[in-house]
Amino acid sequence: MRVLPRVTPRISQAIAFALLWMAALMVILPVTALLVVMFVKGRGSLSWSLVTSTEAGGLLAPIVGTTALVTLTAVIVAPVGVAAAIYLSEYARAGRLVRLIRLAIVNLAGVPSVVYGLFGLALFVMLLHFGRCLLAGACTMALLVLPLVITAAEEALRQVPRRLREASFALGATRWQTVRRVVLPNALPGIITGLILSVGRAAGETAPILFTAAFYSLTDPFPKSLFDPIEVLSYRLFVIATEVPRIEEGEKWATAAVLVALVLGLNALAVIARARLRRARRW
Amino acid sequence: MVKQRAQRGWEWLIERAIQVAGAVAIIFVLMIFVFLLRDALPVFKATTARELLAGKDWLPTAEPPRFGFLPLVLGSLYVTIGALALAMPLGLACAAFISEVAPRWMKEVLKPGVEVLATVPSVVFGFLGLLLVGPWLADVLNLPVGLFAALGSLMLAFMAMPTIVSVSEDAIRSVPAALRENSLALGATQWQTIWRVVLPAARSGIIAGVLLGVGRAIGETMTVLMVTGNAAVIPEGLKGLLRPVRTLTATIAGEMGETVVGSPHYHALFAMGLILFLIAFLTNTIADAAIRRSGRLGR
Fold it and tell me: How much is the ipTM here?
């Protein structure tokens, strides 16, 4: 005798789909809710004077430091990353070397950020005697975002249609002339989008700069040269959350809100830029 | 003529530079490995491999110091396995939902939504766990402190889910439509098709997504440093999840600032870095092979 109704395929489908719906909501909703709470709690203490103040808890120094860090990171990573992408897209022939390069890129992207910190400490801070400073931090960070930049730039280069290259060759241009005058200009928007994305990533990272660049200072927060340590937003948030007790709770939330706004803002910028440029360019 | 030749020399130089840059990723992977190894090996002047890997005490500043990695390795495992237990089923279900079930408008909300979540910095997750989720959970579960292994797992799961979702979603989407159509034509429901046809066909890509998630979770630093309480004790049983633990990454991040450069403690921290690097290398290489396999199946 059957007590329970038979589970027909349709019923099991309904149950399964309900569970899938719930899973999707569980991925999105809790974190979204946490971020909303953060912005609400931070809004009360967020003011123009907090963002422009250099007193304890003031955010001017870390904002300046973060800007300097990510700008220098982009300046260092751009030529290397784009050159590597040009090699992969325009020069390399499929083979063992290219497979090895791709494997290395994947692995570079997977190295834990704190391990980048160790590497930066051993190479830039100690061996090259940079000391704990802006330059050492930017070099470490450049390495961290390198795989991102190579991947994005290569994709941008590959999207330039073949016939443009062929037309250039047909006019007698050499390979480098074609790359320089035809492919690069057409891929530039995509490359810049990739750079903005990697800057966004660099702006949020903490572990790589822990032992290579960051410090917390109340007396002399601004770097005078490449060889000075810097205040960074992410590091500031870490310090005031875990170590410094005399910061108002509201200011902590405000600091977190500013950091998230900065990172999301940079990502939004990249998305908007990509959408715009995609519309402007139809092949 | 002269100008042309000069230009050709210039071009030759640039093209060689581009070739060197092409190999830059390989060079840096090797360099990272060599530098970690160089600063990790001197630790054996102060201790043995046996004590390092099996020693039960991490007391680097005691007299004499003890450099047992076991509590930290177990701490990392606890937090990571906990995170995966949450993130794997949810991330996979979310990926299946996005690519197979969700109505179009919802797809257009969920996909960018997940991508946005992937960009939230780890220090922010640590902050939220420390000030918001931890105290709340401690209150609900009646725990003495709001810093424990499972909290690290939870926050890490939030961070690893976007990775798992986007990689497995790619894998599921690349399953050929013909497979689905055949299954539906045989009278299978949509769910039967997903469960018995689509997911098995996307297996390799899904495994890759999970592995990348594992790699991300084991290497994650700031979140874990801030929310797991950092007690270097060996976690025991399921109860260990509700006690403070300390992971490899958190130990490096928390202690490197206070050690003397060149001391055994310093070298021990580099040895941990080397272990983390090797774990990441392994998971990423396998994941890469799996992705390549699923790409071939998709065609």
Answer: 0.91
Per-residue pLDDT tens digits for B254-292:
999 888 888 999 999 999 999 999 999 999 999 888 877
What are A50-60's pLDDT values in tens digits?
A: 888 777 778 88
Q: Which residue from A175, A183, A176 is spatially nearest to A158, judged by alpha carbons?
A: A183
Residue of chain A whose Cα is closest to the Cα of B266:
A118
**Whole-structure pTM value:** 0.91
Give the 3-state secondary structure percentages of chain B, helix then strand then coil, rounded to 5: 80, 0, 20
From B120's Cα to the closest Cα of chain A, the distance in A is: 7
Q: Could you tell me which of A264, A261, A184, A233 has the C-alpha nearest to residue A70?
A: A233
Question: b/e for A143-180, b at 16 or more Cβ within 10 A?
Answer: bbbbbbbbbbbbbbbbebeeeebeebeeeebeebebbe
Contact A231, A178 (CB under 8 A): no
| CA distance linking residue A44 with residue A253, whole number of Å | 9
Give domain limits for chain A.
48-280
Query: How many residue pairs from chains A and B have C-beta atoms closer than 8 A?
Result: 255
From the list A9, A34, A110, the residue facing B284 with the nearest CB is: A110
Q: What is the rounded CA–CA span in Å between residue A257 and residue A43?
A: 8
Residue-level pLDDT at A282: 58
- Three-class DSSP category at A47: coil
pLDDT digits (tens, 9 = 90+) for B182-222: 999 999 999 999 999 999 999 888 888 888 888 888 899 99
End-to-end CA distance of chain B: 51
Q: Which chain B positions have a beta carbon within 8 Å of A104's beta carbon?
A: 25-26, 28-29
Closest CA to A12 of B215, B191, B187, B257: B191
Strands B58-59 and B66-67: antiparallel
Q: What is the number of residues in chain B?
A: 299
Q: What CA–CA distance (Å, rounded) separates A183 from A188?
A: 9
The mean pLDDT value for B79-96 works out to 93
Topology of A48-280 in CATH?
A: MetI-like fold (1.10.3720)
Residue A5: CB atoms within 10 Å: 7
Cα separation, B271 vs A242, in Å, equals: 26
Kindly identify which residue of chain A lies nearest to residue B269, measuring between CA atoms: A118
Q: Which backbone phi and psi does B136 adopt, to 5 degrees?
A: -65, -45
Q: Which CATH class is domain B46-298?
A: mainly alpha
